[in-house]
Design brief:
There is one protein chain. By secondary structure, the protein is an alpha/beta fold. It folds into two domains: 32-45 and 122-251, HAD superfamily/HAD-like (Rossmann fold, 3-Layer(aba) Sandwich); 46-118, DNA polymerase, domain 1, CATH 1.10.150. Helix content is 52%, strand content 12%. The protein has eleven helices and eight strands. It has helices at residues 2-25, 40-43, 50-56, 61-82, 88-102, 109-118, 128-137, 150-160, 182-192, 206-215, 243-251; strands at residues 35-38, 44-45, 123-124, 141-146, 168-171, 199-203, 219-222, 238-240. A six-stranded parallel beta sheet has the order 5-4-1-6-7-8, sandwiched between helices. Helix 4 crosses helix 5. The radius of gyration is 22 Å and the shape is globular.
Length: 255
């Protein structure tokens, strides 16, 4: 009887042991960091709107896309400095209008709507899925700190099928700021209830890496376009050209 009574308990014991092992594997206790806050262009390729722009303006796709993105940042900075906030989707539309006029291109209402919609259907970089899954499996919390509106964040994540890999989508629109305003970066600490030194910020732009590092976040600049470091005297903790470098930085063992 004693041997027979042991039968049901062995599988139960093994199941409990396996669950404990999974929990330990998912624990971030071996990492000095507890979370990663992403700028959205680290996740989504901003040049993925270029094919739609090319359809609208043949031969101008990449040139227009770059000028449009540059004006997005210009308007964000100007609105932030002057305290004249508008959400990032409006900023994107205003920047689109300016770029078309600057390049002497006619922007029909239908074309304008189609190009703005492209910013809701950005394509993720090829290394995104694996990198987010590695972080998630290690127990690292994953959020955004982005100038994108909440609707833009959610639409792109849903369309790419990666929304379930994020713990929270934080948009600077909630407190009427744009990065690199320190109040924008502070959103991550408030949402996660973690210290600055426990949250790694993943920046796409050199200016964003500078802002996050000045705020106090351990910062990795994912320099996908291989541009020079900003000459501002505050370099990131690490510079990488893809997400492998970011993940290695986050998961490395503390000394």
């Amino acid at each position: 009887m004693a041997l027979r009574s042991f039968g049901p308990t062995i599988p139960a014991f093994l199941m409990l042991f396996a669950l404990q092992g999974q929990a330990q594997a998912a624990s971030p206790s071996n990492s000095r960091y507890k979370a990663v806050a992403f700028d959205y262009f680290v996740i989504f390729d901003p040049n993925s709107v270029a094919p739609e722009v090319e359809k609208a303006f043949p031969g101008k796709g990449l040139e227009f896309t770059r000028a449009w993105r540059s004006k997005q940042f210009d308007y964000s900075f100007l609105r932030s400095i002057t305290g004249d906030h508008a959400d990032f989707f409006k900023v994107t539309g205003d920047a689109l209008d300016y770029t078309a006029e600057q390049m002497h291109l006619e922007l029909a209402a239908e074309t304008r709507a189609r190009l703005l919609d492209a910013y809701l259907h950005l394509k993720p970089w090829p290394d995104v899925m694996v990198a987010l899954q590695r972080l998630k499996a290690s127990g690292i919390r994953i959020i955004t700190i982005s100038n994108f509106t909440q609707a833009m964040l959610r639409a792109n994540a849903d369309n790419a099928g990666i929304a379930n890999l994020f713990d929270e989508f934080l948009s600077t629109e909630v407190n009427g700021t744009f990065k690199p305003d320190p109040r924008a970066y502070e959103l991550g600490m408030n949402a996660l209830h973690l210290r600055k030194d426990e949250i790694v910020f993943a920046a796409f732009g050199g200016w964003d890496a500078y802002g996050a590092k000045r705020f106090g976040y351990p910062t990795v600049w994912v320099n996908r376009f291989h541009v020079p470091t900003e000459a501002l005297g505050t370099p990131p903790d690490r510079m990488a050209t893809d997400l492998d470098g970011l993940v290695d930085f986050v998961l490395r063992q503390p000394k």
